């Protein structure tokens, strides 16, 4: 498959290199300056253009990697989907969830593939730790019934994406990991030193899962040594997953069984990009019966949780999540709600004005009839068959 690279975000560049090195895909055009080393990995037949529209007008381009700067990434994503190309998008696509909802509905109309670049969730150690989380009687887990998930994460730079950009709404890392292990998140509380998120300041995040259990996250920027620790605590013990050199370095999972015997699993350096390529190719072939991992729903949920966490920091109170589904039916209901509210205000205004101009009251009935006619559209227009 021939693909294009829009931008030079590191995740997008790494994915492009992995696709090119697989031998099954070929980069034909890119839009941002790349280093000589990267160009050597991408191949000799690629060329650079400055206009995104020129890329999307090329009929040989079948897929697009959206990796532009944060300020223009949402516009790139929208145009790439509207051009009916398969899209791989760097996370986060925008500061708020609205573009993610819109992208999901456009993708549903075009039928093209839309996947986020969330490399951490592909790690096999995360899948292994998920097996220890049991919420019923705990008989199938050596740690018993799941109660708490803790995450301690430190890096040399910044952890919050975009926190260094003035006026930008920063996003939090690791929501996909928390949801993979513990399920949907129902409530979030975030704490910082001030009522806004700043560079170089630790952040604490806590909350509870929808299916039961709590979580606690420590985000520590500008530390001397990067590390990452995940601990699942149950009624009878705990399982600890340690990334001493960062998430893509060596990994150790330690736990004790019911007899008190200690166990360890070990993973070497993890390269997530081949796993993401496999996911992309499976979805292209419609071979994956279930939702791929990661999928666009992970992006939508992460942006919703970002909003909730930022609101919690600002308001100094917990945020309860009311999840929205990015579907055509939900969009129709939302639109009709707005139209209905406008109709009520319009009827009230006509009643008031009819005291001076009595003929205006005859407009009320036609307005109500038109609104009721719009409600019939959901029954007249056939629904798309679920894939």
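Sequence proposed for the structure above (387 residues):
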């Amino acid at each position: 498959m021939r693909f294009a690279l829009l931008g030079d975000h590191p995740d997008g560049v790494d994915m492009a290199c992995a696709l090119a090195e697989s031998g099954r895909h070929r980069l034909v055009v890119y839009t941002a300056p790349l280093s000589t080393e990267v160009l050597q990995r991408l191949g000799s037949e690629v060329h650079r253009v400055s206009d995104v529209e020129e890329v999307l007008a090329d009929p040989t381009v079948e897929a697009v990697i959206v990796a532009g700067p944060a300020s223009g990434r949402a516009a790139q994503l929208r145009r790439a989907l509207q051009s009916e190309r398969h899209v791989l998008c760097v996370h986060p696509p925008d500061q708020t969830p609205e573009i993610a909802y819109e992208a999901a509905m456009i993708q549903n109309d075009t039928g093209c593939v839309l996947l986020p670049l969330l490399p951490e969730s592909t790690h096999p150690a995360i899948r292994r730790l998920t097996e220890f989380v049991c919420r019923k009687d705990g008989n199938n887990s050596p740690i018993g019934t799941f109660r708490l998930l803790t995450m301690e994460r430190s890096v040399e730079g910044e952890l919050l994406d975009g926190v260094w950009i003035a006026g930008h709404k920063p996003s939090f890392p690791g929501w996909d990991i928390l949801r993979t292990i513990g399920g949907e998140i129902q409530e979030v509380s975030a704490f910082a030193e001030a009522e806004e998120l700043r560079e170089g300041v630790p952040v604490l995040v806590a909350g509870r899962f929808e299916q039961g259990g709590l979580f606690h996250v420590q985000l520590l920027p500008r530390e001397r040594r990067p590390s990452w620790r995940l601990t699942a605590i149950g009624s009878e013990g705990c399982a600890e997953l340690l990334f001493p050199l960062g998430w893509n370095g060596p990994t150790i999972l330690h736990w004790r069984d019911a007899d008190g015997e200690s166990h360890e699993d070990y993973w070497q350096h993890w390269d997530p990009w081949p796993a993401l390529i496999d996911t992309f190719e499976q979805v292209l072939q419609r071979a994956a019966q279930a939702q791929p991992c990661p999928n666009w729903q992970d992006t939508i949920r992460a942006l919703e949780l970002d909003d909730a966490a930022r609101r919690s920091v600002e308001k100094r109170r917990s945020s309860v999540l009311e999840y929205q589904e990015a579907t055509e039916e939900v969009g129709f209901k939302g639109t009709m709600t707005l139209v209905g509210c406008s109709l009520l205000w319009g009827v009230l205004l006509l009643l008031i004005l009819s005291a001076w101009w009595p003929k205006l009251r005859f407009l009320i009935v036609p307005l109500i009839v038109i609104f009721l006619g719009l409600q019939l559209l959901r029954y007249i227009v056939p629904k798309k068959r679920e894939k």
